[in-house]
């Protein structure tokens, strides 16, 4: 029995005077794993950013638990985890400081949890290195470590598997599956072929009319 | 009333109405302005203090007034655009900016022309001219910001915010510049005339004011129609209209 | 990577505490400033350089410097602030932290106010503390120097608050900081006028309470309104991604 978390109604979006998508209806409930698919440039990232509330350049409605997002913005953002193209990791701060800072914005920081999350993301031993000295893949892991600290019911992940090496891909897939089984909801895009069951797919570019 | 307001947001409707209004505005602007300017420049009596050089106020006062009120109108449009998400609001801002800047520049120019015979210099840092100069900078700032942004939606919202913050500042700027001016020039002849003007002077002034309003309205509607055609160029009604020309 | 989630799914009914988020915002700003402390020198050096140009370029006569000094210091401070503001949000925008910050579960305007306050302490307060030294170089009397510091203490927060609006609007744009200077200068003029006006009044022996009160009023207005504009501008710039 899933409850609807995020609902998008009749979303119409343009870019460079071309309609990207029109009349898009989309509903995500707890326990659902969604993948937004489509060719490059079709607007997957744009749609994700609209759903995350970062991009207001659309027509239509976006509802969080039945309420328009612009009216319950802080509540929506308290229940949302968004990972974009950029890791959001500051190069002057260490991996630990980056993650602890992110957590401290949401709940009182608990150092043991932060260390454990970094270890979960495969960064044991790298916690105190300035992020500038980490590789791109490691910086991405700092961002992914947030998944282990987040109680948010909705995760929106853009290019979830970017810069994740092959062994970790299977584990990340399992994490997402377990999360969804535990009642969370995930919307993601990826170029990687998901080896998961029960993934619902929303394909852009065909089946959504350009006006 | 709300219905009319929402109609205003439709580019096609606005284009049609503006198209019908423009000839009226254009011709009446021409007639009224000619009448006002000719009356003021040629027939109104000379000022006993400043002689004939004061006549420039028939151009200076309307352009200064419009330079200011256009900025305020742009700020109102900015609020409308942000709150009601109307693209037409940004069309107005895009069209009015250049006209407002031109009016402000004209006010500065005519202020200088007035200053030369009165004080012997082309420029003087008095309160009104300095405020006008800062207003021109505000306009230039909006133009520069818009020029640096390509995405039309981001550009619309960003310039709306800049114009709204600017309008809040205008009274602050005016007050502080006036205060600054009294500090540095205790005995100043103000660029604006004292209100005790005889009817033979303020009647042509009012006519010029009206004429300038009509002219500015015509200019802005013209620019707005062009902007609409550009924005909506993929729509069928635009194609039909262009083909019918 | 671990494949079991650690933290259970929990629906938050209310937003996270904003005092803690504000404190964390300040803490992070100061930590990064400390890590890059050599960069903090730049606005200071620029400030002193600009001030030094005037004796060199105009006249080193004590009479001239005494009269022009307060204005020179104010203009130099204004330009230094604009220079540092240009970088205010840029790093965060580039590495993606800005969009995470904008997605924080607290009112963004409050966080913006905290951030600006933190930036004022790290970037502007050192400038103001340097003013007594500059006052000596410009042959200003100690009393004048003190009033100058006072007006800067009240006026520069206004400059930072209003300038942050421009910084937020232009953060996603390429190009030099000239655009920011062009946009912000008209807004800075009232602060400049009353700041220098106060010092002039002090030199003439008149009371400065009126000027300080006006500067204080501008500060109150800026504290209340600017954060809202900064938050709106940040959201706009982040959507440009």
From TrEMBL, chain B:
Subcellular location as annotated: Cell inner membrane; Membrane
Residue ranges annotated for the Cytochrome c assembly protein domain, each copy included: 27-184
Transmembrane segments: 21-44, 64-84, 91-115, 127-146, 158-177, 201-221
GO biological process: cytochrome complex assembly
Domain of life: Bacteria
InterPro entries: Cyt_c_assembly (IPR002541), Cyt_c_biogenesis_CcmC (IPR003557), Cyt_c_biogenesis_CcsA/CcmC (IPR045062)
Pfam families linked to this entry: Cytochrom_C_asm
Signal peptide start and end residues: none
GO CC annotations on file: plasma membrane
Molecular function terms from GO: heme binding; heme transmembrane transporter activity
Membrane topology: Multi-pass membrane protein
Keywords: Cell inner membrane, Cell membrane, Cytochrome c-type biogenesis, Membrane, Transmembrane, Transmembrane helix, Transport
PANTHER family: CYTOCHROME B_B6 PROTEIN-RELATED, HEME EXPORTER PROTEIN C
Function of the protein: Required for the export of heme to the periplasm for the biogenesis of c-type cytochromes.
Family: Belongs to the CcmC/CycZ/HelC family.
Protein name: Heme exporter protein C
């Amino acid at each position: 029995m899933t409850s609807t978390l995020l609902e998008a109604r009749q979303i119409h979006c343009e870019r460079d005077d071309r309609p990207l998508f029109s009349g898009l209806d989309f509903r995500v409930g707890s326990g659902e794993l969604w993948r937004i698919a489509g060719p490059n440039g079709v607007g997957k990232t744009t749609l994700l950013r609209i759903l995350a509330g970062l991009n207001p350049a659309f027509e239509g409605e976006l509802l969080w638990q039945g309420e328009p997002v612009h009216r319950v913005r802080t509540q929506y953002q308290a229940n949302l985890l968004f990972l974009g193209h950029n890791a959001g990791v500051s190069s002057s701060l260490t991996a630990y400081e980056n993650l602890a800072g992110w957590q401290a914005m949401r709940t009182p920081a608990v150092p043991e949890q932060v260390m454990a999350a970094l270890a979960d993301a495969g960064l044991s031993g790298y916690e105190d290195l300035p992020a500038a000295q980490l590789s791109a893949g490691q910086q991405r892991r700092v961002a992914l470590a947030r998944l282990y600290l987040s109680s948010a019911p909705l995760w929106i992940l853009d290019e979830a598997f970017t810069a994740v090496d092959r062994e970790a891909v299977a584990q990340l897939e399992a994490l997402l599956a377990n999360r969804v089984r535990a009642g969370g909801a995930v919307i993601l895009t990826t170029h990687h072929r998901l080896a998961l069951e029960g993934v619902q797919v929303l394909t852009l570019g065909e089946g959504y009319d350009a006006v | 009333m709300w219905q009319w307001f929402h109609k205003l947001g439709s580019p096609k409707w606005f284009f049609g109405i503006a198209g019908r209004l423009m000839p009226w505005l254009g011709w009446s602007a021409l007639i009224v302005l000619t009448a006002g300017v000719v009356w003021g420049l040629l027939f109104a009596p000379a000022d006993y203090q400043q002689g004939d050089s004061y006549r420039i106020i028939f151009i200076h006062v309307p352009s200064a007034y419009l330079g200011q009120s256009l900025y305020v109108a742009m700020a109102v449009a900015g609020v409308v655009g942000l709150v009601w998400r109307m693209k037409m609001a940004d069309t107005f801002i895009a069209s009015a900016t250049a006209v407002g800047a031109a009016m402000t520049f004209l006010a500065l120019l005519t202020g200088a022309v007035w200053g030369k015979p009165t004080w012997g210099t082309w420029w003087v840092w008095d309160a009104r001219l300095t405020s006008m100069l800062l207003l021109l900078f505000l306009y230039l700032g909006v133009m520069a910001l818009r020029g640096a942004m390509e995405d039309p939606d981001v550009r619309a919202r960003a310039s709306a915010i800049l114009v709204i913050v600017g309008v809040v500042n205008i009274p602050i700027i005016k007050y502080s510049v006036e205060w600054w001016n009294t500090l540095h020039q205790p005995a100043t002849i103000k660029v604006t005339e004292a209100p005790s003007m005889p009817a033979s002077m303020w009647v042509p002034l009012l006519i010029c004011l009206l004429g300038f309003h009509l002219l500015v309205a015509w200019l802005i509607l013209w620019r707005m129609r062009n902007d609409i055609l550009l924005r909506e160029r993929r729509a069928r009604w635009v194609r039909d209209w262009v083909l019918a020309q | 990577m671990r494949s079991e989630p650690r933290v259970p799914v929990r629906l938050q009914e209310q937003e996270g505490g904003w005092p803690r988020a504000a404190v964390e915002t300040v803490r992070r700003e100061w930590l990064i400033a400390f890590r890059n402390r050599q960069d903090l020198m730049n606005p200071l050096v620029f400030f002193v350089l600009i001030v030094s140009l005037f004796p060199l370029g105009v006249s080193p006569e004590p009479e001239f410097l005494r009269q022009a000094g307060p204005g020179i210091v104010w203009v130099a401070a204004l330009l230094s602030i604009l220079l540092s503001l240009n970088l205010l949000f840029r790093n965060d925008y580039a590495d993606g932290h800005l969009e995470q910050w904008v997605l924080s579960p607290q009112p963004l305007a409050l966080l913006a106010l905290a951030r600006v306050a933190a930036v004022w302490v790290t970037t502007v307060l050192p400038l103001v503390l340097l003013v007594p030294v500059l006052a000596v170089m410009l042959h200003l009397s100690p009393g004048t120097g003190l009033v100058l510091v006072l007006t800067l203490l009240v006026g520069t927060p206004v400059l930072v608050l209003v300038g942050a609006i421009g910084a937020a609007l232009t953060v996603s744009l390429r190009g030099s900081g000239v655009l920011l200077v062009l946009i912000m200068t008209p807004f800075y003029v009232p602060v400049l006028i009353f700041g220098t006006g106060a010092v002039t009044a002090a030199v003439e022996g008149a009371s400065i309470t009126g000027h300080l009160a006006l500067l204080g009023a501008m500060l109150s207005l800026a504290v209340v309104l600017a954060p809202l504009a900064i938050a709106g501008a940040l959201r706009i710039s982040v959507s440009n991604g």
